[in-house]
Amino acid sequence: MTRPLHLATYLMAFDTDRQTLFDRTRTGFLVRAAVLAELARRGSVADDGGTVAVAEAEPTGDPVLDAALTEVGAHARRWKAWIRRDREDTLEAVEQQLAVLGAVLIEDRDPYGPPARRRVLVPDPAEALAVQRATAALLRGEGDPARVGLGEAALAALAAAGGVGLVVSRGERRAHRDRVTALTGRLSELSPALARAVGGLGTTLVAAQGGMGGG
Questions:
Q1: Is the pTM of this model over 0.90?
Q2: Separation CA 214–CA 211 (nearest Å)
Q3: In the beta sheet, which residues pair with residue 48?
Q4: Per-residue pLDDT of the chain (215 residues; tens, 9 = 90+)
Q5: Are strands 14-15 and 51-54 parallel, antiparallel or unpaired?
Q6: Distance CA 67, CA 55 (A)
Q7: By the 8 A CB rule, do 212 and 171 touch?
C-alpha cells in the first residue's frame, strides 16, 4: 500500500466503471475509520480507556490527518463517536487531497453551488483497480493474517465491514468470515476499541442509512 490508509480507502471504494463512489455514505464512515487507524499507526493517537487520545501532537504533514488530530486534541470521544463525526467534511477533504496529488479530478457542475454538485472522476483507473484487486486477494487468501502488513489488514477489514462489493461480495464475506475476523483483529494492535468499532461498522452503517441502500 503506497498511499496513506485514508486515501487508499477512498480509491478502494471508487467504482471506476461508473466513475463514482460505490456508496458515498458508507465511504464517509470508512474514510473516517481509516483516518483514525492511520493516526494510530503513525503513533499520533492512542487508546486511553476506550477514548481516543493524542499521543504525539507533532503535525503529520498530511492535511486530513492533521485536521483530525486537532479535533481529537480538543475533545475526548470514543473511537466509534469519532468515526461517526464530520464524515462528509472528511470525505470532501480527502477528495481535495487526492485532486492535489493528481489521483482524481473534481469537476464543478455549478461553480457557485454546494459541494454535492461536484463530480469526482478518476481519469486513470489503474491505481484504484490495483488497490481493489490486492484487497480482494487478501480477503480470499490463505496466508497467515498475522504476517500481513497492518495497513493492508486494516484496508481489508474496512472493505469487509463496509460491504464494498467492488472488493468482496456478501457471499464471500460469509465464506471467509474467519479470515475477515482475523484481519479485523489486527487493528487490536492499535486499539482493541478501534477493532471493535470497525467490526461493528455494518450495524452502524445500516442504522445511518435507515436500512440498506445506496448513498
A1: yes
A2: 10
A3: 51
A4: 789 999 999 999 999 999 999 999 999 999 999 999 999 999 999 999 999 999 999 999 999 999 999 999 999 999 999 999 999 999 999 999 999 999 999 987 666 666 556 799 999 999 999 999 999 999 999 889 999 999 999 999 999 999 999 999 999 999 999 999 999 999 999 999 999 999 999 887 877 766 443 33
A5: unpaired
A6: 15
A7: no
At a CB cut-off of 8 Å and minimum separation 6, what does 179 contact? 139, 140, 141, 145
Q: Phi and psi of 190, rounded to 5°? A: -95, -45
| Rama region for 144: left / alpha / beta (φ>0; ψ in -120 to 50; rest) | beta
The gap from C-alpha 156 to its chain's centroid, in whole angstroms, comes to 10
DSSP lists the bridge partners of residue 107 as 119
- What amino acid occupies position 121? L
* Residue in this structure with the C-alpha cell 480527502, named with its chain if needed: 94
Cβ(37)–Cβ(190) below 8 Å? yes
Helical pair 87-100 and 63-74, crossing angle rounded to 10 deg: 150
Where are the chain's structural domains?
Answer: 5-86+124-204
* Residue in the structure block whose three cell numbers are 504525539: 56
Burial of 201: CB neighbours in 10 Å, binned 0-12, 13-18, 19+ = buried
